[in-house]
Design brief:
Blueprint: E1 8-12, H1 16-27, E2 31-36, H2 39-45, E3 49-51, H3 57-65, E4 76-79, H4 98-125, E5 135-142, H5 156-176, E6 181-188, H6 197-200, H7 203-212, H8 222-233, E7 244-247
Parallel strand pairs: 1-2, 1-4, 2-3, 4-5, 5-6, 6-7
Helix pairs in contact: 1-8, 3-4, 4-5
């Protein structure tokens, strides 16, 4: 019996931290459905999936409606989907166009909102489980939302989106706690994923990660984040809601190389 045996979990995103979590959740006994827009990545995971651009309201609604035929119930949502806004114009505020700002917010905050909304609609309609829970929602954020690194990561729209996700998490956690629904967030630092390839190839960023994340000696592995997500999606954290769990290898307590 795994830690998630019998639980139904939806994971948004199909690469990096999302992919690692989907595989681990399944290995721990969960029924997992991945919701993402890249068919090849979804098929590569070898588990059920729903194709959807999570910035598209109708597509997101259809994907979550499809969970009813794939999962026994929706015990947890792990909302990971998002990405860097550099390619669409994110940067320091004085250099960022409105289009770049909007595109970065849409890429990161809209999927978190739509996935959370659809999961809440499903969870509110289902009966509490044996622990009294209707479900758990875990939203991916970033340390950049509250602990900036201006010398290397001046992506201000991305930071704003990740900070806003924390605000959404806290208010929804408060509102839905009486309904037996928990909402928490993970704030990750530099993790070795496809999104971080640019930083991982930059000597200055590698040196920064080595000093700023001393517990891991550099970039985190996706599994470091998955371990925390596993607990938040499981029944063992039934009394935890409204919290930001920072998984950062020491970033936020290190004064090095800001």
């Amino acid at each position: 019996m795994g830690l998630l045996a019998g639980r139904g979990i939806a994971v948004t995103g199909s690469s990096g931290m999302a992919a690692d979590a989907a595989r681990r959740f399944a290995a721990e006994g969960a029924s997992v459905v991945v919701i993402a827009r890249d068919r090849a990545e979804c098929e590569g995971l070898g588990m059920p999936y729903e194709l959807a651009d999570l910035t598209d309201e109708a597509a997101t609604e259809r994907a979550f409606a499809g969970l009813g035929t794939r999962l026994p119930r929706l015990d947890a949502l792990y909302a990971v989907a998002g990405g860097s806004g550099r390619r669409v114009g994110d940067g320091p505020v004085h250099e960022t166009s409105l289009a770049g700002w909007a595109a970065t917010i849409d890429l990161n905050l809209t999927p978190a909102f739509l996935a959370t909304r659809e999961a809440l609609r499903i969870m509110l309609a289902q009966q509490p489980d044996a622990t009294g829970s209707r479900g758990s929602i875990v939203v991916m954020s970033s340390v950049l939302g509250f602990d900036p690194a201006p010398s290397l990561f001046a992506t201000h729209a991305y930071a704003a989106a990740k900070a806003a996700a924390l605000g959404m998490m806290r208010t929804t956690a408060a509102y839905y706690a009486p309904h037996g629904i928990r909402v928490n967030a993970i704030a990750a630092s530099l993790v070795r994923t496809p999104m971080s390839q640019r930083a991982a190839a930059d000597p200055a960023s590698v040196a920064f990660a080595s000093a700023k994340q001393p517990l891991t000696g550099g970039f985190l592995d996706p599994s470091d984040v998955t371990e925390v997500a596993l607990q938040l999606c499981g029944a063992g954290s039934r009394a935890v809601t409204g919290q930001v769990i920072t998984v950062d290898g020491g970033w936020t307590v290190s004064g090095e190389h800001r």
